[in-house]
Amino acid sequence: MAAFRIFALLLALCAALAFIAGRELWESYGPGVSAAVEAVSAEASRFAAKHPQAACVDESFRRLAACEDVWCEVQAPIFTRRCLAEAESSPELCADVPDTMRAAVFWPSRACVDIEARSESCERVLLEVLRVCLARSPPG
Hints:
Layout: H1 2-50, H2 53-66, H3 70-86, H4 101-112, H5 119-136
Helix pairs in contact: 1-3, 2-3, 2-5, 3-5, 4-5
């Protein structure tokens, strides 16, 4: 019983420290992260106003190719989601997306093999494409 109490006390202490550390990190970096997300979203909106959805994906991969750090790669799917939501619909956007749920599940990872971008970042961008295409016509 004493071992359980010690374990519970250590677990509670770790949870408290994690909460304090998380709060400190958010206070230090949160406003900057929020501002950066808003800036990327605004860029996506401006781009979407002048381009169709298919161009949003091309632009996302162009941005990924130019990335030099992880934060840049994190921004690509944010750009993609906003741009796809606001751009004029492109029938060709979904041309390569499989029409069955089973194939659609594996499509992003398989498609990224041919794209010269980091796999995780590429898949996140293509998941945004998949989300839009599935909303248009869900696979069987």
